[in-house]
Design brief:
Helix content: 25-40%
Order of helices and strands: EEHHHHHHHHEHEHEHHHHEEEE
Keywords: Signal
InterPro entries: Allrgn_V5/Tpx1_CS, CAP_dom, CAP_sf, CRISP-related
Pfam family, one: CAP
Strand content: 5-15%
Radius of gyration: 23 Å
Protein name: SCP domain-containing protein
Number of strands: 9
Largest sheet: 5 strands, mixed
Length: 431
């Protein structure tokens, strides 16, 4: 859990209850990833955050612990509408070592999760987080405000509590704070591709690698929203007959955003390769498609990322399709000349997750974008989509979209999307 938690005064060793903890030891590292307490300093000013002050207190600790136990007790007793009673729900106690690690990461002032928060008692440590700001003189509400966001505000995203209680599904990160979810075992047989390990198992969360330095994640709520909207708007346009020479589509799905697909795309983007990874499987999709783009400049500003690459995937590839009618009925590939375009409009694909990074590569300010698609398109000799009046042959479980009238949407597609992508891998150790 995210906390508003106490300061420790040492970078590598912390004296807690009379015991020095070697945070840089192999036991407290996560494979090749060092522990947060080993990697990071006790910051007071960092990047765009100044005057960092610890506001954790006996009051905030007591309040956070009580809210957790009261909510767990309420749910376990059947007091949360539609949720089944719990026969084995544990009472929670407070742990100062967990707090120390949470505080060290909080003081880095990042809007993301740390990757190795292991402690002597627990190999796998979950995490919830919250950030709020105001231009007023007073600070926003901390502990109480974030707990409401983690519980009441996430309940609306759980359509079938019974189902996820029996088999936790993740919900694309929409209720990970509420569930304080499970870690995904990326090195498992199920998420490997034969003898090929998953990207999330094989590769680290790099900051510098080969000829790429200062790798920074530039993915944001804005880039996610923009990329999703561009995909759906283009699919809607094509399905409605708005792309010259292309037939209308009768069964084109509306796409929704998936944070787990984004996680895998980001891990590969941070390897700074000008190629595709070979095993990007996720729990929901065995076969995952991918589009990619890289652009660099010697100017001070980074090139346009999301918007620029989408134009390249669509408008710039249209010229390579001589006979749209033919490839819609039987996808031929075109020697890869329009693979990006075909994946963008593949009718069966209904989820996307995209990552954008900025890096300094070979003296160029470089932006790299990867989008992962579930399920994958671009199957040779298969239909790209069925020709016909828009949304006239919607797949089972979908109907004509309210937002995009030429597309087919599931009930969840028309709901407000969650673009925060917090804790999508469940907070466990990923190496």
């Amino acid at each position: 859990m995210w906390g508003y938690l106490t300061a420790s005064l040492f970078i590598v060793y912390v004296e807690i209850q009379g015991q020095a903890i070697d945070w840089c030891s192999k036991e407290l590292s996560c494979g090749n990833e060092k522990n947060t307490m080993c990697l990071y300093k006790d910051e007071k000013n960092i990047e765009d955050c100044t005057n960092i002050v610890t506001s954790t207190s006996v009051y905030t600790r007591t309040q956070m612990l009580n809210m957790h136990n009261e909510y767990r007790d309420k749910l376990a007793g059947g007091g949360v509408t539609k949720w089944p009673k719990a026969a084995n729900m544990r009472q929670i106690s407070y742990d100062c070592i967990l707090e120390d690690v949470a505080l060290r990461w909080a003081k880095q002032c990042k809007s993301a999760h740390d990757t190795c928060r292991r402690v002597p008692e627990f190999k796998d440590v979950g995490q919830n987080r919250n950030l709020a700001g105001t231009k007023g003189k007073e600070f926003p509400e901390g502990v109480k405000g974030c707990f409401k966001g983690w519980t009441e505000e996430e309940l609306v995203h759980v359509a079938n509590p019974d189902a996820i209680v029996d088999k936790f599904a993740g919900g694309n990160g929409k209720y990970y704070h509420l569930s304080q979810g499970q870690a995904i075992d990326w090195c498992s047989k199920e998420l490997s591709c034969g003898n090929e390990k998953n990207t999330m198992c094989l590769y680290k969360d790099e900051k510098n690698i080969e000829d790429c330095t200062n790798i920074v994640t530039s993915t944001s709520v804005y880039t996610r929203t923009q990329m999703l909207n561009m995909h759906n708007e283009y699919r809607d346009k094509l399905a409605g007959g708005g792309v010259t020479k292309w037939p209308k589509a009768a069964n084109m799905r509306q796409i929704s955003y998936d944070c787990i697909l984004e996680d895998v795309a980001l891990r590969w983007a941070k390897q700074c390769k000008s190629a595709h990874d070979t095993c990007r499987r996720v729990p929901e999709f065995k076969d995952v498609g991918q589009n990619r783009n890289l652009a660099g400049t010697k100017g001070k500003e980074f090139p346009e990322g999301v918007k620029g690459c989408f134009k390249g995937w669509t408008e710039e590839e249209l010229v390579h399709v001589a006979n749209p009618d033919a490839i819609v009925d039987k996808f031929a590939g075109g020697n890869g000349k329009y693979y990006h375009l075909s994946q963008v409009v593949w009718h069966e694909t209904f989820k996307i997750g995209c990552a954008e990074i900025h890096t300094y590569k070979k003296k160029f300010n470089t932006v790299i974008v990867f989008c992962n698609y579930g399920p994958m398109g671009n199957w040779l000799d298969s239909k790209m989509y069925s020709k016909g009046e828009p949304a006239s042959q919607c797949p089972s479980g979908t109907t004509k979209s309210k937002k995009y009238p030429n597309l087919c949407a599931s009930p969840d597609d028309d709901k407000t999307q969650n673009f925060s992508c917090i804790n999508t891998t469940g907070g466990g150790t990923v190496v």
